[in-house]
Specification:
Length: 335
């Protein structure tokens, strides 16, 4: 399987500005699946900046994470400076083996396992139950099409992987908007590794905070590999408060669901065929996707393109009514 040395992602606003012009403040960045209404950053204690993070602060964060994600109180858990760091580190802790990645999906999974010397194969949904790979990797809900796999099915796969001495790695980066599909409540089950991303749902991607649940030995190995102070003090303080704020999360799920429906009401009349998504983004198919993306760029609107699927575009949520109006106008100006 061939992997590009550099994988393109959403959020490259600097490149869009270099091509189309404008200032950062002129642009509407719809290229990511990050919540445009972030959690209100609380006052951060001064010692979070001036002292090294201590075990008590980390313990409080881990307890809040278990509670928010619905994990068992004793589930092995490690915090990391972003789920991307976990995606990169995990493959380096496992001896080279056969890895199957359910796709199409977030390209960093296949890339990082391959860079660590594993034999990586891309598989489709029809191959999921018959894969013989020691490590099976999938994203649920999937990025970018939002496909959901039921927890019961994933637990069966995890048991199968454990029986052959392997693992099922489930990336739940967007599971906050589909909690019914999460397997985090089963964290600690044999063969199951779950990755969680803090920044997307809470809209604080720059904070760089993520979590991994899994077998005790693997979590201990990740913890040892990161070493002390892997998560900065301000991230510990903000993450602990946000993860304990269940009322905010409940209200935000309702707001995101309404915003996603409003986005559908902009995309569909413009002839963009919906292919799926979550309440944080929508994937569409359109024959002239590249030309539409360029036209949007000329209007200082950035969307996510896919080099290997030139008929796909992904749209994040517009942050306000003015952004919705600009998007609607830009899409209506198609030649």
């Amino acid at each position: 399987m061939t992997h590009r040395p550099v994988v393109d992602h959403g959020g490259a606003l600097d490149r869009a500005i270099a091509r189309f012009g404008g200032r950062r403040s002129d642009w509407i960045d719809l290229s990511t699946g990050i919540n445009p209404w972030p959690y209100p950053v609380p006052a951060i204690p001064a010692d979070a900046w001036t002292r090294l993070p201590d075990a008590g602060m980390l313990g409080d964060l881990l307890a809040a994470a278990r509670g928010f994600y619905g994990a068992p109180a004793a589930a092995p858990l490690v915090a990391a400076p972003g789920s991307q760091a976990l995606i990169q580190l995990l493959p380096r802790l496992i001896p080279p083996t056969d890895v199957a990645v359910l796709g199409p999906t977030y390209a960093e999974h296949a890339r990082c396992w391959a860079l660590a010397g594993h034999r990586v194969q891309a598989i489709g949904p029809a191959d999921l139950d018959r894969s013989t790979a020691s490590v099976l990797v999938l994203v649920n809900p999937n990025n970018p099409d939002g496909t959901l796999l039921a927890p019961d099915r994933l637990l069966v796969l995890a048991r199968r992987q454990a029986g052959r001495g392997g693992f099922l790695v489930v990336d739940e980066a967007f599971a906050e908007v589909a909690p019914e599909a999460s397997v985090t409540p089963h964290a600690g089950a044999p063969g199951l590794v779950v990755l969680r991303s803090f920044g997307k749902f809470f809209g604080l991607a720059g904070l760089r905070l993520g979590f991994a649940f899994g077998p005790a030995a693997m979590i201990a190995a990740l913890d040892a590999a990161f070493g002390p102070w892997a998560v900065a003090g301000p991230a510990l303080a903000i993450g602990r408060k946000a993860l304990a704020d269940h009322d905010w999360a409940t209200a935000m799920r309702t707001r995101l669901a309404a915003a996603a429906l409003a986005l559908d009401g902009i995309l569909s009349p413009a002839g963009l065929e919906p292919l799926g998504g979550t309440d944080l983004y929508r994937l569409v198919r359109v024959a002239d996707a590249g030309r539409i993306a360029d036209r949007l760029g000329a209007s200082q609107i950035l969307v996510r393109r896919f080099a290997d699927r030139p008929d796909r575009l992904r749209f994040g949520l517009p942050p306000d009514a003015a952004a919705e109006a600009r998007l609607r106008t830009a899409l209506s100006n198609r030649d």
